[in-house]
């Protein structure tokens, strides 16, 4: 079966209204509901912004996060109550291993990841958990994907900022939100971080009938999902990732070494505002943001404080590389030679260190058909055998890493 055929079959089968067994592919697809318990403590607009660990309350930051979407983060209910999905082999009654998959920035559908989950499940025997990052996938309101509504937002951005680039209805919501309040990158990331801790805690309590409570937990990150995954590995909350493995695909670098300006990701103004804001915050030790300064104080929040080490390559480089030395047998990256969003050289710089003295494997591949960061595996009949072969190489590389 060619890759595009597998993609179309899985896309047709994937139905969030019901669990599905697919005998011809040897997998089952399950859908579980989730309630994000920590949302009220982190999201702008919440009247309960509170650090439980230090008994410290903060203002709602509602004014800081005003934007043209007119929707406070805490009021987006689908970001708090949502579904995640599990793909696992049919021949396994209870999986004794889990791989949590994190997607890229500004993505709204799981279609692209279904063949990846299928390949990982069948090659590793583990349960593959497709877990949405906050305000993405089904955690984003449908109107943020409305061509009509978002076209109007995109047009407004074009009119207000004539020098802007790559403006589109596809990236209008993400661009508007990050342009207005770049710190959302941290707060939505922290919400997701705590969601994962909550998920693993539930897993270890025996909540899932098809996964053993003692199952190993590994991570898979694509693009910005690699950024989140790396922070989870560095932080190791509750010791949950002490023995975990992380496979980064098209990612692994600090966020200033990613180049996300694209009609599919974010526009130029949003990207520049985000980079400028975090550069200013880092250079002033977050003095203009009391809440973020509190959570980035490593003496107060050692785990969460790793976020700041992945913002800019030249900041906290020593601390970051010392931590990567400790994790060098637990992380592998596969990057693509012609990827312009997450360039391979930057994965080498970040993961292997400035002096290349960190033994994290960074595999650089190149596919013999036209591909992009957004679509590494083309869905056309042209070059179908080459695409299928490239996909199989990718899955084989990841599975071998998880299985060793």
Walk me through the topology:
Elements: H1 3-13, E1 20-22, E2 27-35, H2 39-42, E3 50-51, E4 56-57, E5 81-89, E6 95-102, H3 114-124, E7 127-130, H4 147-160, H5 172-180, H6 184-204, E8 211-222, H7 224-235, E9 246-249, H8 268-283, H9 290-295, H10 317-326, E10 331-336, H11 344-351, E11 361-365, H12 384-403
Parallel strand pairs: 6-7, 6-8, 8-9, 9-10, 10-11
Antiparallel strand pairs: 1-2, 2-5, 3-4, 5-7
Description:
With 404 residues, this protein is of the alpha/beta class. It has one domain (3-403): Alpha/Beta hydrolase fold, catalytic domain (Rossmann fold). It is 35% helix and 16% strand. The strands form two sheets. A nine-stranded mixed sheet has the order 1-2-5-7-6-8-9-10-11, sandwiched between helices. A two-stranded antiparallel sheet has the order 3-4. Strand 8, helix 7 (224-235) and strand 9 (246-249) form a beta-alpha-beta unit. The chain is globular and about 55 Å long. The two termini are 27 Å apart. 47% of the residues are buried.
Features:
404 residues, alpha/beta, Rossmann fold, 9-stranded mixed β-sheet, two-stranded antiparallel sheet, 12 helices, globular
The profile of the biggest β sheet is: 9 strands, mixed
Tell me the strand percentage band: 15-25%
CATH architecture label: 3-Layer(aba) Sandwich
Rg (CA only): 20 Å
Uncertain spans:
none
Structural class: alpha/beta
The CATH superfamily is known as Alpha/Beta hydrolase fold, catalytic domain
CATH classification class = Alpha Beta
- Spatial separation of the terminal alpha carbons: 27 Å
Number of domains: 1
């Amino acid at each position: 079966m060619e890759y595009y055929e597998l993609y179309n079959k899985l896309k047709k089968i994937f139905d969030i209204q019901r669990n599905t067994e697919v005998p011809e592919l040897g997998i089952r697809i399950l859908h579980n509901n989730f309630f994000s318990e920590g949302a009220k403590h982190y999201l702008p607009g919440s009247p309960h912004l509170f650090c439980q660990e230090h008994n410290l309350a903060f203002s709602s930051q509602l004014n800081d996060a005003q934007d043209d979407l007119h929707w406070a983060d805490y009021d987006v209910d689908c970001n708090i109550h949502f579904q995640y999905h599990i793909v696992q082999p049919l021949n396994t009654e209870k999986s004794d291993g889990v791989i949590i998959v994190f997607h890229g920035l500004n993505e709204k559908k799981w279609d692209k990841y279904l063949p990846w989950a299928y390949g990982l499940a069948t090659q590793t025997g583990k349960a593959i958990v497709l877990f949405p990052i906050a305000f993405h996938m089904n955690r984003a309101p449908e109107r943020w994907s409305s061509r009509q509504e978002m076209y109007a937002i995109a047009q407004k951005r074009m009119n207000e900022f004539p020098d802007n680039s790559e403006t589109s209805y596809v990236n209008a919501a993400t661009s508007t939100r990050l342009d207005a309040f770049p710190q959302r990158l941290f707060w939505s990331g922290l919400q997701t971080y705590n969601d994962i801790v909550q998920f693993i805690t539930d897993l270890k309590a025996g909540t899932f009938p098809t996964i053993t409570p003692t199952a190993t937990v590994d991570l898979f990150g694509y693009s910005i999902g690699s950024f989140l995954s790396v922070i989870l590995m560095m932080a190791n909350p509750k010791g949950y990732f002490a023995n975990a493995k992380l496979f980064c695909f098209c990612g692994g670098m600090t966020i200033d070494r990613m180049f996300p300006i694209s009609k599919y990701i974010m526009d130029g103004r949003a990207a520049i505002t985000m980079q400028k804001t975090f550069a200013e915050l880092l250079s002033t030790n977050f003095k203009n943001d009391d809440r973020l300064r509190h959570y980035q104080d490593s003496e107060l929040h050692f785990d969460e404080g790793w976020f700041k080490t992945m913002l800019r390559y030249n900041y906290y480089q020593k601390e970051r590389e010392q931590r990567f030395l400790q994790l060098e047998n637990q992380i592998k990256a596969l990057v693509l030679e012609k990827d312009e969003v997450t360039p391979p050289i930057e994965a080498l710089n970040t993961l292997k260190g400035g002096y290349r003295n960190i033994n994290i494997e960074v595999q650089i591949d190149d596919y013999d058909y036209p591909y992009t960061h957004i679509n590494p595996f083309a869905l056309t009949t042209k070059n179908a055998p080459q695409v299928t072969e490239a996909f199989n190489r990718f899955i084989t590389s990841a599975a071998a890493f998880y299985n060793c």
